[in-house]
């Protein structure tokens, strides 16, 4: 990889890591599902009028949009709205690797390698450590604050919601296999079309028309900056560069750079938001990301000699 492309790969990982801080910023004055709808509306319009629809069935485009975008980010934004710190969200979302392996094995009959199984096991252990750290940090394990049960729910529910986001991403990964070889940028743009209306409808149902109306009427700079960054930089700029790199180099050489996004997310959240994970949470984060890295090792060896077609859906661990 040339020095210029090396810098671009690191830049993309940095953009995707800081993305979680931008999400946190937008959630300060906008309900999570409304924020998701706004983000993907900006991704789709007006590009959908200029980008050719990828040559894949509509059901595949809809499946990618519903699971990889609406489901993943609807649950991710909700988890952060409920109190999951941005840095930890960047890490916990990596459980998508575990779900992708399991679902691919059950649905596509793809047998995981030994290293992938070890990586998935490490990921589960890492998630457990993070959950333990969340419980301990909220005082639920020590009985601090009086009501340990309430503290436990406040600590674990956002974590479980984020795990649900990883599950949705994993399903989306398997669905996206049907779009192999299609123009990745086109898939991102056209699949975004199916996100805004379901997210707005769900927000109207859960938050109520008054809350949704107020969100649009009093939209502040935080939401505008968040939508501009997540849609413009994380989705469009990030994946344009990523697709270019995947078109020039083996996927096994490019994909590991995505593993830089969770550490960048942790550091960015600590520096910009003051969200510093506890020692136990940090250990769990290292174990989880380490498990994802182990799962990548076998894949890297296997595909290092093959240049795969570019796809915006080939990235793992980005939290785009």
What features would you describe in this structure?
The chain has helices spanning 3-26, 32-44, 58-81, 86-92, 96-107, 114-137, 148-176, 184-191, 196-206, 209-217, 221-248, 251-254, 261-273, 279-303. The protein is globular. It contains 14 helices and no strands. The protein is an all-alpha fold. The two termini are 23 Å apart.
Architecture blueprint of SSEs:
Layout: H1 3-26, H2 32-44, H3 58-81, H4 86-92, H5 96-107, H6 114-137, H7 148-176, H8 184-191, H9 196-206, H10 209-217, H11 221-248, H12 251-254, H13 261-273, H14 279-303
Work out the number of β strands.
0
Distance between the termini: 23 Å
Task: Determine the oligomeric state from the structure.
Answer: single chain
Mean pLDDT: 85
Task: Compute the number of helices.
Answer: 14
> How would you characterize the largest beta sheet?
none
Integer count of domains: 1
Structural class: mainly alpha
What is the overall silhouette? globular
Which bin fits the share of residues in helices?
Answer: over 70%
What is Rg?
19 Å
Please trace the helix and strand order, writing H or E for each element: HHHHHHHHHHHHHH
Show unreliable segments: 299-317
Binned strand content:
under 5%
């Amino acid at each position: 990889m040339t020095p210029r492309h090396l810098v671009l790969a690191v830049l993309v990982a940095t953009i995707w890591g800081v993305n979680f801080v931008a999400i946190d910023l937008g959630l300060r004055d906008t309900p999570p599902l409304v924020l998701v709808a706004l983000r993907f509306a900006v991704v789709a319009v007006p590009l959908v009028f200029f980008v050719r629809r990828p040559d894949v069935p509509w059901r595949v485009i809809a499946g990618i949009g519903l699971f990889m975008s609406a489901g993943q980010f609807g649950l991710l934004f909700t988890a952060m709205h409920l109190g999951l710190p941005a840095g930890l969200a960047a890490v916990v979302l990596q459980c998508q690797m575990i779900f992708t392996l399991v679902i691919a094995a059950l649905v596509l009959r793809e047998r995981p390698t030994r290293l992938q199984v070890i990586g998935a096991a490490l990921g589960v252990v890492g998630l457990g450590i993070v959950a333990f750290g969340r419980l301990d940090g909220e005082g639920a394990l020590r009985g601090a604050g009086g009501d340990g049960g309430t503290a436990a729910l406040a600590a674990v529910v956002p974590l479980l919601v984020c795990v649900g986001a990883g599950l949705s991403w994993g399903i989306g990964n398997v669905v996206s296999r049907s779009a192999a070889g299609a123009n990745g940028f086109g898939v991102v743009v056209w699949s975004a079309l199916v996100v805004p209306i379901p997210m707005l409808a769900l927000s109207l149902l859960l938050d109520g028309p008054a809350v949704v109306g107020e969100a649009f009427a009093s939209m502040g700079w935080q939401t505008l900056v968040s939508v501009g960054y997540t849609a413009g930089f994380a989705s469009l700029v990030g994946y344009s560069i990523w697709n270019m790199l995947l078109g020039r180099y083996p996927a096994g050489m490019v994909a590991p750079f995505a593993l830089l996004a969770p550490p960048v997310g942790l550091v960015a959240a600590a520096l910009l938001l003051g969200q510093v994970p506890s020692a136990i949470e940090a250990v769990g984060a290292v174990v989880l990301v380490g498990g994802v890295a182990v799962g990548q090792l076998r894949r890297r060896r296997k595909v290092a000699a093959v240049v795969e077609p570019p796809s915006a859906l080939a990235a793992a661990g980005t939290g785009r």
